[in-house]
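#onboarding

Welcome to the new folks! Below is a worked example of what a typical request in this channel looks like: someone posts a single protein sequence, and someone else replies with the predicted structure as tokens. Don't worry about understanding the tokens yet, we'll cover that in week two.

Example request:
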Amino acid sequence: MKKEIITRSEQETFNWAFDLGASAEQGSVFALSGDLGTGKTIIAKGIAKGLGIDDEITSPTFLMMEIYEGRFQLYHFDLYRIDNLEELDELNFEEYWFGDGVSVIEWAEKAGSRIPDNITKIALEWAGDTERRIRIEYPGN
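Example response:
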């Protein structure tokens, strides 16, 4: 199933992502793509809060992955600094993507064909000064 929504504020984007996290199941993977500043980290924060995580969620750009404890473990990835697919081989990220927690992958497009088909893909883009267009493709499409 594909869906498109427009959020009109950062808070509205966060609230939408909170619902996504609250309904996430063990093994869920959310692949986020979009330009800088479109709201990927806001979505990660909302998903985390929906999983019951109260920690401050920041973009793990320099660490590439952070793990948080909640209803399920949250594996928060940021692939912004990935320059080639061989770097993913060294980091073994796929082991987490298919694990028992919930994974959120920022800059998922940098993983190319490594991103599995049976995940939720979320593409973000600006639709106005504060509005974001969010395109969601749920598994099975």
